[in-house]
Design brief:
mainly beta; 8-stranded antiparallel sheet; 8 strands; 56% strand
Amino acid sequence: MPPGDAGFGLSWRVERSPYRGSDRRYDFLPLVVYDSRYFYVHSYRGGLRVERDAWRAELFVQRRFEGFASDDVPTSMAGMARRQFGTDIGVGGSLRLGPGTGYAELLHDAGNASEGSEIIL
């Protein structure tokens, strides 16, 4: 997509729950895409980025889909605290190396739903 272009669409997301007693989960997702040279929005993630020859760095916020619906608690988890969707803030970077690209992200749970952090390589 050329810088400055935008798009809109609709999608259904299907997730198979890892919890016994829980069925598949369906989410309706509006797909919103906007890309400019320094700013982007991709449905559930938005951020700022800087790109130079072979590298890119970004600062972003995104919705984390892990957990189960609070209105449909699996029977295997009755009585346990409900898990909620999370909001992560993060930094990422990539570096083109010959025919491939190395990429890493550091995310932190901004909403304290899990009080955790994650590294993606």
